[in-house]
Amino acid sequence: MTNSQLSTFNFQLNMKLPGKIAIMGGGSWATAIAKMCLAQEDSINWYMRRDDRIADFKRLGHNPAYLTGVKFDTKRITFSSNINDVVKESDTLIFVTPSPYLKAHLKKLKTKIKDKFIITAIKGIVPDDNVIVSEYFTKEYGVPPENIAVLAGPCHAEEVALERLSYLTIACPDKDKARIFARRLGSSFIKTSVSDDVAGIEYSSVLKNVYAIAAGICSGLKYGDNFQAVLISNAIQEMNRFLNTVHPLNRNVDDSVYLGDLLVTGYSNFSRNRTFGSMIGKGYSVKSAQIEMEMIAEGYYGTKCIKEINKHHHVNMPILDAVYNILYERISPMIEIKLLTDSFR
């Protein structure tokens, strides 16, 4: 394909973006994104794994399990538990499944997705493969990097449900495509910006969950606000060291998509990772905390994945190491955090 033909192709693709949007997942963040999309879109497709959840959604007019206060006009939504049907009928696929379950969902996929526009709102790493989601779609499904975007930022689903002002960043190697989707996602309560730092934002989205677990553990151990401030200050430095090593780029980690997301996840009562960490700090075992929460704390899986990745990079990451030792090596949180405090300034 000549440069002229490629330019024409990209223009045509941009003109139809986002086309028909599909939400791929049924949790709280998926529900919040569906609310955002329907603020501007006439209709969407929505893939949910369970037929009983779909039936209850249609009957009640809201997600029966998550953000139950958000009402939907279900006539504007085409639901399906068949992932292939949803993919065939959609142009833009927004994946919002927890990272540990992504491969299980995609195993059912028989329809090619390399010509679709893929948006990952998954704040995790693909377990076992230890790669970020955008790389996984390129490696396993042949989706060109310029057709993959990441959606991130300091944005709790619960606050979107309440229409509290929130800020999101859409990152894509092709910033024109990011801008097109950003315009369709923005509303009176959602402000958007764009970036081309796909890998950096994905890694930071994983790391902020790890650091939120650390913040929760310290809260459970009764460390106060003074120490939490020092912890988060060291966390953003640790994040910056890691990002500059694995994906060198001229970025500003003070931007809201990095630091802002870290702050809200580390401090907010809506943060499931902080809640999970707090339970660990109070003496719960990992398993008992997971059972009682009944929700996925992505940082638990992200901790192990980043630890494995860092074996190849050798970045100094004392907070990550401390969380890993507590969650996977069963070292006492009290002992591990005390050792961590000695390394801080």
From TrEMBL:
<dbReference type="GO" id="GO:0141153">
    <property type="term" value="F:glycerol-3-phosphate dehydrogenase (NADP+) activity"/>
</dbReference>
<dbReference type="GO" id="GO:0008654">
    <property type="term" value="P:phospholipid biosynthetic process"/>
</dbReference>
<keyword id="KW-1208">Phospholipid metabolism</keyword>
<keyword id="KW-0520">NAD</keyword>
<dbReference type="InterPro" id="IPR013328">
    <property type="entry name" value="6PGD_dom2"/>
</dbReference>
<comment type="similarity">
    <text>Belongs to the NAD-dependent glycerol-3-phosphate dehydrogenase family.</text>
</comment>
<dbReference type="InterPro" id="IPR008927">
    <property type="entry name" value="6-PGluconate_DH-like_C_sf"/>
</dbReference>
<feature type="active site" description="Proton acceptor">
    <location>
        <position position="208"/>
    </location>
</feature>
<dbReference type="GO" id="GO:0005975">
    <property type="term" value="P:carbohydrate metabolic process"/>
</dbReference>
<dbReference type="GO" id="GO:0006072">
    <property type="term" value="P:glycerol-3-phosphate metabolic process"/>
</dbReference>
<protein>
    <recommendedName>
        <fullName>Glycerol-3-phosphate dehydrogenase</fullName>
        <ecNumber>1.1.1.94</ecNumber>
    </recommendedName>
</protein>
<dbReference type="InterPro" id="IPR036291">
    <property type="entry name" value="NAD(P)-bd_dom_sf"/>
</dbReference>
<dbReference type="GO" id="GO:0051287">
    <property type="term" value="F:NAD binding"/>
</dbReference>
<dbReference type="GO" id="GO:0046168">
    <property type="term" value="P:glycerol-3-phosphate catabolic process"/>
</dbReference>
<feature type="domain" description="Glycerol-3-phosphate dehydrogenase NAD-dependent C-terminal">
    <location>
        <begin position="197"/>
        <end position="334"/>
    </location>
</feature>
<keyword id="KW-0443">Lipid metabolism</keyword>
<dbReference type="GO" id="GO:0005829">
    <property type="term" value="C:cytosol"/>
</dbReference>
<dbReference type="InterPro" id="IPR006109">
    <property type="entry name" value="G3P_DH_NAD-dep_C"/>
</dbReference>
<dbReference type="Pfam" id="PF07479">
    <property type="entry name" value="NAD_Gly3P_dh_C"/>
</dbReference>
<dbReference type="Pfam" id="PF01210">
    <property type="entry name" value="NAD_Gly3P_dh_N"/>
</dbReference>
<dbReference type="InterPro" id="IPR006168">
    <property type="entry name" value="G3P_DH_NAD-dep"/>
</dbReference>
<feature type="binding site">
    <location>
        <position position="123"/>
    </location>
    <ligand>
        <name>substrate</name>
    </ligand>
</feature>
<dbReference type="InterPro" id="IPR011128">
    <property type="entry name" value="G3P_DH_NAD-dep_N"/>
</dbReference>
<feature type="binding site">
    <location>
        <position position="272"/>
    </location>
    <ligand>
        <name>NAD(+)</name>
    </ligand>
</feature>
<feature type="domain" description="Glycerol-3-phosphate dehydrogenase NAD-dependent N-terminal">
    <location>
        <begin position="20"/>
        <end position="177"/>
    </location>
</feature>
<keyword id="KW-0444">Lipid biosynthesis</keyword>
<feature type="binding site">
    <location>
        <begin position="272"/>
        <end position="273"/>
    </location>
    <ligand>
        <name>substrate</name>
    </ligand>
</feature>
<keyword id="KW-0560">Oxidoreductase</keyword>
<dbReference type="GO" id="GO:0047952">
    <property type="term" value="F:glycerol-3-phosphate dehydrogenase [NAD(P)+] activity"/>
</dbReference>
<feature type="binding site">
    <location>
        <position position="157"/>
    </location>
    <ligand>
        <name>NAD(+)</name>
    </ligand>
</feature>
<keyword id="KW-0594">Phospholipid biosynthesis</keyword>
